[in-house]
Amino acid sequence: MVNEAPSDTPGGTPEQPDCSDIPGQIVFVLQGGGALGAYQAGVYEALHEAKVEPDWVIGTSIGAINGAIIAGNPREQRIERLKQFWELVAYQGSATAGLLPLLDDWLRNVSIMTRGIPAFFAPRLGTLLGMHSDGGVAPAAFYSTEPLRQTLLSLIDFGYLNGKQTRLTVGAVNVRSGRMRYFTNRDAPLDVDHVMASAAFPPGFPAVRLEDEAWWDGGIYSNTPLEAVLDDHPRRDSVIFAVQLWPAHGREPKSILQAMSRQRDIQYSSRAESHLERQKQIHRLRHVIRELEQYIPEEQRDAAEVRELLGWGCGTTMQVIELDAPRLAGEDLHKDIDFSSSGIKRRWAAGYEDTARMLEKTPWRERPDPMEGIAVYRSDPEANPGAA
Questions:
Q1: Which residues of 8-42 are buried (b: 16+ CB within 10 A; e: fewer)?
Q2: Local confidence band at 74 (pLDDT 50, 70, 90 cut-offs)
Q3: Is this prediction's pTM over 0.90?
């Protein structure tokens, strides 16, 4: 069952809601989506101001970058580091001084595709030789991401990150096997290559080698890494802030460009709802197994084979708070490369406002059905005043 977040209390709520009663571990789950990731930064700023800090951050692509900046810095430095990153990758200037916005958007996109973004990626001259040029898996990309490597090294303290003050998990897919893997600093130290691999979206960005294997952006396999927390072992009660950048639901398109844009929304939302429904079924089975224990005679419960079977059960609760980025006015097919300073500012503000509204509703105070174990609360992205 999907719940609407509880309604606001009569008479309004304080500017800073009391979030001190959030139960269990706090988890951020961050999708990939390029420039759309500024929304995630706004989400974190609102949470940070409400003194809601993550115990665990899980991300792919731009979500891995934002997540590494959060987990790789002390709390008091996180907002400043996020601002520095988004300022570094912002596209400045307007060819027509804003008089012809459509032309400005087209020229900006052309500039980004042909010249790159200085702090993020740069064109590979080798691609001029043709797309059939055989240079190996690393050069098999249109751009070099060495600028991103230097940017991340300047903004993330990997010594602090591997001190495990905050758990970080980043998703990447093995180029040869096609299998997804989640790298986490709980199990082994992470470095800049792990974050780079999670953001190596082909064919734009080159694969990154880890453990002598080539890895690509985990978003091409699963852009919503929610399963990483729901399948974690040992499982813990969790409140999960799942930040979705690509809308699963949308209007019927009326043009080819709108159809192409809608297709990308569906593709990169990565069947988040169906994945969650499947996880809810599995979690319910875990709760059923736990309940069955009381019907087994006490003298049989300690048998090794019975204890092994009962080990599949659990009584944890998972409360998923979905924050869905709204469709902003003027967005088009290329919204994920809209690194304009105005676009970044609008998305950051939308993330902040949506999260502030959700926190006022304190949905975690509605405990899940004990037999279900998972409750989902969804924001209304169309409630954002900047929505299209």
A1: eeeeeeeeeeeeeebebbbbbbbbbbbbbbbbbbb
A2: very high
A3: no
